[in-house]
Amino acid sequence: MINIQEVIETNKMIEKENLDVRTITLGISLLDCIDADLQECKKKIYNKITTVAEKLVETGNLIEKEYKIPVVNKRISVTPIALVGGACCKKPEDFVEIAETLDAAAKTVGVNFLGGYSALVSKGMTTADKNLILSIPKALAKTERVCSSVNVGSTKTGINMDAVKLLGEIVLQAAEETKEADSLGCAKLVIFCNAPDDNPFMAGAFHGVTEADAIINVGVSGPGVVKTALEQVRGENFEVLCETIKKTAFKITRVGQLVAKEASQMLGIPFGIVDLSLAPTPAIGDSVADILKEIGLEHPGAPGTTAALALLNDQVKKGGVMASSYVGGLSGAFIPVSEDQGMIDAVKAGALTLEKLEAMTCVCSVGLDMIAIPGDTPATTISGIIADEMAIGMINQKTTAVRLIPVIGKGVGEIVEFGGLLGYAPIMPVNNFACDAFVNRGGRIPAPIHSFKN
Amino acid sequence: MKKAVITVVGKDSVGIIAKVCTYLAENNINILDISQTIVQEYFNMMMIVDFSKTEKEFLVAANELESIGENIGVIIKAQREDIFDMMHRI
Fold first, then answer.
1. Which of A19, A224, B71, B74 has its CA 20 to 30 A from that of A11?
2. Which residues of B touch A64 (CB under 8 A)?
3. What does the DSSP 8-state code read for residue A424?
4. Does the residue A249 lie in any domain?
5. pLDDT tens for residues A151-188?
6. Which residues make beta-bridge pairs with B46?
7. Measured between beta carbons, which residues in chain B are less than 8 angstroms from residue A5?
8. Which domains are delineated in chain B?
9. Looking at residue A353, which CATH number applies to its domain?
10. Which residues in chain A (3-22) have CB-CB distances under 8 A to chain B?
């Protein structure tokens, strides 16, 4: 039987170390909502979401009360809308109408984000894909809870550079459309390489076409728990360090597995995966950067950071994989800048640059995340940064992503405030040398060879 | 068996366990295990109880226990046991 020390340990994790279930994300297929008539399509989408997800928030709250573990977010992901709206949306404005329908459905069921305003264009763009991408700036400005993502590359297909070029411009337009709110629109837009179909985390969640009609995916998180565990092994060697991370990750993930199974049973919807990611929030003590510091770095960005992050990411996976029957999504350590107080401090101290962040994304999930850059950054430079990050994902057979926020009207060193879970960030400098001629070539980068690994 | 863990944390005083046990007895909730310890000068008690014979809804009982705690100045929490089992047992 469980003993008192174990009970105290678990409750300490929840009460003092910010252990929580970060999100229960309900994936809903909207493929059966496709219709040639826009109004009819919107009606079907609204009805399906509000029916399938009717009890989602209530269930999350019930689990929270029964186990006394916070279930922070209840969210929905849907089939990429470029596929759903392809038959009825003839122009970008039509897609914006669907975005508004999604927003309304999200508000009705009470979820704080709905992901899947997406297009999968890793090899080429259909007319619908292009219209959806063109509609993103308006859609993000006109809605509150809709999140958008575009998959522009994969290890199997290479990188669609036409889409990369277009998205550089779209990111800037999205910033311009929401400039009164510090370009907040861009915080809801993720550009992916090798995007997973079952990711529960926003803003990049969508319900892939390989998935069942509805599915429950859970993201659990507890950087504070790992940090506290590591405080007990200061000065010990790497074996002890790695074992400690692994054991802690196991415990954290077990909670995710329990909650996922419970939610699945209560809602009568199959359990999909648990995402093992360590996801920080701006709250003090809920930071991945603090773990890196505890491992032995003065600030993230110092020499050794990439190695420390690599071992952290790997041990989290090793511990987590055994704790859950199905693991998926992004599963690793997130390193968003604005959502992690330790990362913000590192940028302010001058320890962390965009280039070092890029190196860090080679060994962790997911990518250049929630990074504020000057609003006058050229679109081609943004495309160049996206292309670099996509190349890392393509060659290393991993998911990478870019969520940059060019803050209109603000420059390097100024602070932008996004609020809530999105946090705040100092604007980081971007390499000013041009890459226009590279980005403007057009076409696509071929898929990489999978042999001769060096 | 529907098991739950009840924890009581706070400053030690006379009659804490008595109050909790009286409530459990009145509601036909059986105590399977009970232990206590002092952590950083705070009184920590844990009970594993069986909820399967009571007519009370689990969440109702959890709320009532919480208010008993408020009255005597301690924090009483009732949680489904599975969360501890999952975390500490393979």
1. B71
2. none
3. E
4. yes
5. 999 999 999 999 999 999 999 999 999 999 999 999 99
6. B7, B35
7. 37
8. 3-88 (3.30.70.260)
9. 3.20.70.20
10. 3-11
